[in-house]
């Protein structure tokens, strides 16, 4: 189980401060602590051991200040990071549990325009450390104590670009925390809302706050984060505020008081907690003991439309948002000349004027045929955000210009001219309600409808400028409309796929005939060759039309609802063929599907269409979440279960009449029967990672749960017995009893007493 899966079912803890423990062990003032990974490895490992013994799960490596600016001797940085990973790994392996987090702190320099460190230089500094750490075996990347959102972005980009597990090829999870003052501000001016928007836009796995403040002072900030974040929250406070005593820095919150406030923060919704400066193993132990039995609360999806600059966020809700459109060459001769002359001062003045006149967002369009638009976009974005704190809208039809502007932008921009890129051999599936425009998009791609705006590019070529013969050798189309050809066999239909490669008379060569036969074999339609196309079943027709598409030897196949009219067997056959074509032959598949369970299983990317726009685009793991699907289809009377890819009818309302003792999947058929009979029920005691729980949470009137891998507590047992006694009937689903769920025996005995 990965850390991202484990944190959903079990409360996880970070360790505490490293520096104070090293100072106690003899680290001298001004001495670089990262060198102790090599000179005093046992001391470092012992710190990790103490935190593991205290109950912490995530060991932060002693690499906070490790970068080329401090360690510039040949090989020193690599040796330090590798040793830090090894020291933490040794402690984790001895304990038989835990994760090693590669720690990234600030570089120690301010980025331009506030300082002299270029953005890409900062990215490269972090890339060096992440590359070494990932290769050495880190389990995740922890970016912490960031006070500059621009430096934060540089670190996240580095982690995303090179933080790859060398054994699995999977990106390491990214946790990112920042340091706010008591007013919820970063050193460089960002606030909670703008920081969360940036981090969620960058796709970090966990975000939060650390250092600077004690737990009491952090409560307000945590509350603000929880109000806007859909991402799990990490909170690592200091042990209060520092003060000096006898020349030493001490902190004013003891372990007991620290734990008491951290309990409040955990109950507010923090998913992972730990400590920072001044916290010791005693602080962590006290917190773990007080909070370990509190169920994990993953944040709800906020579904907010928000953009940000480095210092402020703009939310698109009921308020009218004013977008300044003056940074645009259309119809502006002076602006065009400024672009040709690379006169950035003119452009900046336009931006400042619009800000002074009340714009909420600035549109940035620097497209002229005779200039280097990507370079200009990058320069303008950098200069604008140095003098203006409004969020920007990047407006360009150039993918390169968009990419370069996005990369250097210090925030989460609004994007005009959305582009969807599809890679060779990918399966992209369009989903959405009936009438949402899925077929329209596909017909626009295949030139059956005129495009009202935008472009469809194949490599760098505009598909709408290709001849039909060129297009037919690259793209095949299978639509839902039922063909009614006269006096054509299935072989004849498939053979039409070779016409782009024949002469004017359409005469097939021996090679063409062989390709027809091969295509029919691929779709298991050999026996249909001599049959009248109009006399076969709908499922057989789909296979024949797919064979025709294969015959074209296309690089892209476009299909509109290809599973319509097919039974389950033929649906599976068809999708298996498409998957084989994509993965083995490198053919790109673009199709629409009504069956979202099939889309979830076959697609590499999902494009969600609703109304007149694409509302979501991403991997199935990103798209198939309960709230996303409910909103996409407007589901109000029922549920969508992303774990099973199934829909569920609404639960039966009312007080539970039946109590089901279930677990290990034994309760599912009982739950469904009770729902069909319109009987409200309660169930328990279920572990939250049990397959029964996944359905019970949707269908049951009441569910009594327990944390995974834990003994059933007396508290939950009493709760279950009380609910059971108020029910008319008890059903025991013959649950296997083991060491963890041994408490169910008492529940079963209580049930038997009622009989």
Task: Explain this structure.
There is one protein chain. This protein is of the alpha/beta class and 755 residues long. It has 4 domains: 3-291, Alpha-Beta Barrel (TIM Barrel); 310-416, TIM Barrel (Alpha-Beta Barrel); 427-633, Rossmann fold (3-Layer(aba) Sandwich), CATH 3.40.50.300; 651-754, Rossmann fold. 40% of the residues lie in helices and 16% in strands. The strands form 8 sheets. It has an 8-stranded parallel sheet. A 6-stranded mixed sheet has the order 20-21-22-17-23-24, with helices on both faces. Strand 3 (99-104), helix 6 (119-136) and strand 4 form a beta-alpha-beta unit. It starts with a helix and ends with a helix.
By DSSP (H or I, 4+ residues per run), the number of helices equals 28
pLDDT < 50 stretches = none
The whole-angstrom Rg is 30 Å
The strands making up the biggest β-sheet line up spatially as 1-10-7-6-5-4-3-2
Whole-number total of structural domains: 4
Q: State the secondary-structure class.
A: alpha/beta
Number of strands: 30
- CATH level-1 class of the largest domain: Alpha Beta
Provide the fold topology.
Blueprint: H1 3-9, E1 12-13, H2 19-24, H3 36-39, H4 41-53, E2 58-60, H5 76-95, E3 99-104, H6 119-136, E4 140-146, H7 149-162, E5 174-178, H8 192-202, E6 206-210, H9 215-228, E7 233-236, E8 242-245, E9 248-251, H10 255-268, E10 272-273, H11 281-291, E11 306-308, E12 313-315, E13 323-324, H12 333-340, H13 344-356, E14 361-364, H14 373-387, E15 392-395, H15 399-408, E16 414-416, E17 427-431, H16 438-445, E18 457-458, E19 461-462, H17 468-474, E20 475-478, H18 490-495, H19 510-522, H20 538-551, E21 556-560, H21 568-585, E22 588-592, H22 596-602, E23 605-610, E24 613-618, H23 620-623, H24 626-633, E25 639-641, E26 646-648, E27 658-661, H25 668-676, E28 681-687, H26 691-699, E29 702-706, H27 714-725, E30 729-732, H28 744-754
Parallel strand pairs: 1-10, 2-3, 3-4, 4-5, 5-6, 6-7, 7-10, 13-14, 14-15, 15-16, 17-22, 17-23, 20-21, 21-22, 27-28, 27-30, 28-29
Antiparallel strand pairs: 8-9, 11-12, 18-19, 23-24, 25-26
């Amino acid at each position: 189980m990965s850390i991202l899966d484990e944190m959903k079912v079990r409360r996880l803890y970070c360790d505490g401060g490293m520096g104070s423990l090293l100072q106690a062990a003899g680290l001298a003032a001004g001495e670089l602590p990262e060198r102790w990974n090599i000179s005093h490895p046992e001391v470092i490992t012992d710190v990790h051991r103490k935190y593991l013994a205290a109950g912490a799960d995530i060991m932060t490596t002693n690499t906070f200040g490790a970068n080329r600016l401090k360690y510039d001797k040949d090989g020193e940085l690599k040796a330090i990071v590798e040793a830090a990973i090894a020291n933490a790994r040794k402690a984790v392996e001895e304990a038989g549990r835990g994760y090693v987090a590669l720690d990234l702190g600030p570089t120690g320099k301010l980025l331009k325009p506030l300082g002299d460190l270029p953005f890409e230089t900062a990215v490269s500094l972090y890339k060096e450390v992440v590359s070494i750490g990932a290769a050495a075996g880190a389990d995740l990347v922890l970016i912490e104590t960031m006070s500059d959102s621009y430096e934060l972005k540089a670190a996240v980009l580095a982690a995303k670009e090179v933080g790859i597990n060398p054994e699995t090829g999977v990106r390491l999870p990214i946790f990112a925390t920042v340091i706010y003052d008591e007013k919820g501000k970063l050193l460089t001016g960002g606030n909670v809302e703008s920081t969360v928007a940036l981090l969620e836009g960058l796709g970090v796995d966990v975000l939060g706050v650390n250092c600077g403040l004690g737990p009491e002072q952090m409560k307000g900030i945590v509350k603000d984060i929880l109000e806007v974040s859909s991402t799990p929250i990490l909170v690592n406070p200091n042990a209060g505020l520092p003060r000096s005593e006898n020349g030493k820095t001490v902190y004013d919150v003891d372990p007991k008081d620290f734990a008491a406030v951290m309990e409040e923060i955990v109950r507010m919704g923090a998913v992972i907690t730990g400590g920072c400066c001044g916290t010791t193993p005693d602080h962590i132990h006290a917190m773990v003991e007080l909070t370990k039995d509190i169920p994990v609360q993953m944040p709800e999806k906020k579904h907010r439309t928000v953009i940000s600059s480095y210092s402020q966020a703009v939310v698109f809700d009921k308020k009218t948002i004013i977008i300044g459109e003056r940074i645009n060459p259309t119809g502006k001769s002076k602006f065009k000349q400024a672009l040709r002359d690379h006169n950035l001062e003119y452009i900046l003045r336009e931006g400042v004027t619009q800000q002074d006149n009340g714009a909420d967002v600035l549109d940035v369009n620097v497209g002229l045929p005779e200039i280097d638009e990507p370079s200009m976009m990058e320069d303008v974005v950098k200069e604008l955000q140095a003098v203006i704190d409004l969020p920007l809208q990047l407006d360009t039809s150039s993918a390169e210009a968009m990419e370069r502007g996005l990369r250097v932008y210090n925030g989460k921009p609004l994007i005009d001219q959305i582009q969807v890129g599809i890679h060779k051999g990918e399966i992209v599936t369009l989903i959405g309600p009936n009438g949402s425009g899925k077929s329209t998009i596909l017909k626009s791609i295949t030139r059956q409808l005129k495009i009202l705006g935008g472009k469809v590019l194949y490599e760098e070529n505009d598909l709408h400028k290709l001849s039909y013969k060129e297009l037919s050798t690259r793209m095949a189309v299978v639509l839902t409309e039922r063909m009614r050809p006269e006096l054509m066999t299935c072989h004849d239909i498939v053979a039409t796929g070779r016409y782009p490669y024949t002469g004017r008379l359409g005469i097939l060569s021996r090679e063409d005939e062989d390709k027809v036969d091969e295509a029919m074999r691929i779709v298991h339609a050999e026996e249909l060759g001599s049959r009248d196309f109009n006399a076969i079943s709908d499922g057989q027709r789909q296979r024949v039309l797919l064979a025709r598409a294969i015959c074209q030897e296309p690089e892209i196949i476009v299909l509109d609802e290809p599973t319509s009219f097919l039974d389950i067997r033929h649906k599976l056959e068809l999708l298996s063929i498409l998957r084989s074509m994509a993965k083995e032959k490198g053919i790109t598949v673009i199709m629409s599907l009504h069956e979202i369970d099939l889309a979830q299983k076959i697609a590499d990317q999902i494009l969600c269409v609703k109304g007149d726009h694409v509302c979501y685009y991403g991997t199935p793991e990103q798209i198939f979440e309960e709230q996303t699907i409910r909103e996409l289809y407007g589901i109000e009377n029922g549920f969508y279960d992303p774990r099973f890819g199934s829909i569920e009818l609404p639960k039966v309302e009312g007080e539970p009449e039946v109590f089901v003792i279930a677990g290990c999947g034994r309760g599912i058929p009982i739950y469904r029967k009770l729902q069909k009979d319109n009987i409200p029920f309660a169930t328990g005691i279920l572990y939250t990672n049990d397959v029964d729980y996944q359905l019970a949470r949707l269908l049951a009137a009441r569910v009594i749960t327990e944390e995974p891998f834990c003994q059933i507590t007396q508290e939950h047992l009493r709760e279950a017995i009380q609910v059971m006694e108020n029910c008319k009937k008890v059903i025991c689903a013959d649950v296997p009893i083991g060491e963890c769920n041994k408490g169910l025996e008492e529940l079963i005995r209580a049930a038997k007493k009622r009989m």
